[in-house]
Design a protein that fits this description.
With 377 residues, the protein is mainly beta. The chain has 1 helix and 29 strands. The strands form 7 sheets. The protein has a 5-stranded mixed sheet with strand order 1-26-25-24-23, with no helix packed on it. A 4-stranded antiparallel sheet has the order 2-29-28-27, with no helix packed on it. A 4-stranded antiparallel sheet has the order 3-4-5-6, with no helix packed on it. The chain is globular, with a radius of gyration of 20 Å.
Length: 377
């Protein structure tokens, strides 16, 4: 563990990195299904190995579509719903050979689409519909997959479903458990699974941000911890992410007040059995009013180093932190369209590449379609 909070001397080096070396990724559109101002390429984002999955839930009057980029050379595959959908791509996740896409507003209460990589591209494997009776269950509003576990949120039912996956000679899944929202959980912002824990970021009934941590105990998920920020008004938990092994949890608090309103902050928690404890606390070295630092977060572990990527929503900037036991190096990345959409979603690919969504960018003509940028770290 880094145990950074107990260190007496911390070294912080600030560097600035501009658009040099950035490459824009844009999906292809067809003449009969063109780009338009409904497109929001990069509204959702995830990575696994060389694969980048990108959601565009606004495309074609909110029908939605999804793109899987193979590496960063622009080669990609387009996924579309097999049924009339609404907000297909509102949530996406990818792990090993499995890609999953949420369509929470699909008629009947929502649906999750599953695709399997055959080596020659992703093919539809199974569709997982909502089986309840609530037409507004929003099944698939938030999703995650890690190893052999898949998590699906049905916010309209105030429930989270867990499934066990099998990658044998033929892919299959089986329902594992249904988790009821705690009574004090009002709105879910994001969820992640790892290290035998389910992490749910959101807001409680008083409006305070929090992260609820559930432990996987023999296929049941009792509440294990509730994490909160230093203050009640910082939007703590509106963005969360974990390392692949679940050892570190990173939590954004974009409305944290520090010498200005909504400057933003990021909390880093480390697993110290049996619970997660605060290990580090990040503030941008040049933080100012309304920077909203922490609007999006990503993290990967690289040996004894942590790579943390922090997005903003108003200043066209993303911050990269390389953290060791003895030092923290901060690099500010700017670029993209120059608008305020650069950094609304971020991810890290293979510990050495930043994947950054710019929702103010244009891929085609004069439309603001959104785009994805990648840049070496």
């Amino acid at each position: 563990m880094l145990n950074r909070l107990v260190m007496i001397s911390i070294i912080c080096l600030f560097l600035s990195q501009t658009a040099v070396g950035q490459t824009k990724l844009c999906p292809g559109f067809s003449p009969w299904n063109p780009a338009n101002d409904d497109d929001i390429i990069g509204a959702t984002l995830d990575t696994s190995g060389d694969n980048i999955i990108v959601g565009n839930p606004g495309h074609d009057s909110l029908e939605g579509e999804v793109y899987i980029f193979k590496g960063t050379n622009g080669t990609h595959q387009k996924l579309t719903p097999s049924f009339a959908s609404h907000l297909y791509g509102a949530s996406v996740a990818i792990e090993e050979k499995l890609a999953i896409v949420g369509a929470p507003f699909q008629s009947g209460g929502g649906m999750v689409y599953m695709y399997y990589d055959t080596g020659n591209g992703y093919v539809p494997k199974q569709n997982l519909p909502y089986f309840g009776s609530n037409p507004h269950a929003d099944f698939g509003h938030h999703i995650d997959v890690n190893g052999r576990t898949m998590i699906i949120d049905a916010s309209g039912d105030r429930q989270i479903y867990t499934y066990v996956l099998s990658y044998g000679t033929s892919f299959s899944y089986a329902w594992q458990s249904t988790i009821d929202y705690p009574t004090d959980l009002s709105v879910v912002s994001e969820l992640k699974y790892g290290n035998g824990f389910l992490f749910v970021g959101g807001y409680d009934t008083s409006g305070e941000g929090a992260v609820w941590v559930f432990s996987n105990s023999s296929y049941t998920f009792p509440l294990h911890q509730k994490l909160t920020g230093y203050t009640s008004t910082e939007d703590f938990g509106s963005s969360i992410n974990i390392t692949d092994d679940g050892e570190y949890l990173v939590v954004g608090a974009p409305s944290y007040v520090d010498n200005g309103d909504a400057v933003g902050a990021v909390y880093i928690y480390a697993y110290n059995a049996p619970s997660y404890v605060l290990d580090d606390f990040l503030l941008a070295s040049d933080g100012m009013d309304l920077d909203t630092f922490g609007s999006s977060v990503a993290v990967e572990k690289d040996g004894y180093k942590l790579h943390v990527l922090v997005g903003t929503s108003l200043i066209n900037a993303v911050y990269h932190y390389e953290i060791t036991n003895s030092s923290t190096t901060e690099t500010k990345i700017t670029g993209g369209s120059g608008g305020n959409g650069f950094g609304l979603k971020v991810a890290i690919q293979d510990r050495d590449t930043a994947i950054i969504a710019d929702l103010d960018e244009s891929c085609y003509s004069w439309y603001t379609t959104g785009a994805i940028y990648y840049q070496g770290l």
